[in-house]
Design brief:
single chain, alpha/beta, Rossmann fold, 7-stranded parallel sheet, 13 strands, about 15% strand, Glycerophosphotransferase, TagF_C
Length: about 375
Amino acid sequence: MAKAKRVCFLYIAQHHQVWHSLSVAVAMARLWPHIKVEIAATTPELLDYVSSLLSELGGADITLVLLPPAWLRRLGGDGAPPKAPMLIANARRLARYDAVITPERTTALLRRLGVRHPLLVYTQHGAGDREGPFEPRLKLFDLVMAAGPKQRDRMLREGWVTPETCAMVGYPKFDLVDALPARDGPRFDKPGPIVLYNPQFHPELGSWSRWGRTVLDAFTKDSRYNLIFAPHIRLFETASSDERAAFAAYAEHPRIHIDLGGPAAADMTYTQRADLYLGDVSSQVYEFLRTPKPCLFLNASGADWRGDPSYQHWLYGQVLDSVDHLGDAVDQAFATHSDYRQAQIEGIAETFDVQNTPASERAAQAIVDKLERVA
């Protein structure tokens, strides 16, 4: 009798990445019981987070593993420990699996460390347009997922994957969001349209460092709109307590909700609740546009963006080169949404491949098929 396969869904970064592969782990454990599914994480807090989500889903035959060593965790402070040292420390352990499935690209380091046996599978952690994720480490994975034809075709065109190493599976995060009870969104003192300001963490591409405070200040003075400020989780991951305390005045404002990296910043609570997306280059705009709604983009870097595939999403709303009249621009974004609606619909169609079979099951099937081919 052939030895049972053993796979590891690996989480070595922030909690938002769990949302991009956990539903795949659950689908595999439920539909392929002959495969032993384990989830390994680098902090107890992250493992507890996974455990709570699994409980909400009704459970699955999945073993949870806390990766050593404890002393490396202390280097991470309140966040994730350094990824490369954790991979180095656990290389031999991870080499015993038949597949290591990860939502981030740093795990490709295992190949540089001489780990050859397990398949390396990259599920992606977003379906945006930024060129950063299209890079040489993708070639070190045996299987790379694509959410839709846009992502697949670009990876193939630029030579990062081949037809044999790429599987277009849809967007497993949607399965997880849809399977869980709806989360309560923030409550505001007065009703009104909700704007989500979601700046990217990259200091050169995002809008926070240049315009962020100006944006927040503008909404403190504008009684027409409520604001959710929920930046990419990594933007304030290493912020000091004093830096976080500086947001207290905004957090106390009756029309502003501040979230610098809590669970709701990852689980689509805000993208589903908001009426308008205000951002720069974050892939979360595509999660927001699962239902077409107004968008407004901030070109704080002065990018020459037209015709650049890394800014494809800027075709879905007005692009601002200044925030001097932000309130008026928000008004106009609502008033002119019909001008962008068809582009949004087409953009979502090429970003997310939707089939009758859930994306998580399609992703799990792709992994199982790959395992069988190397048996």
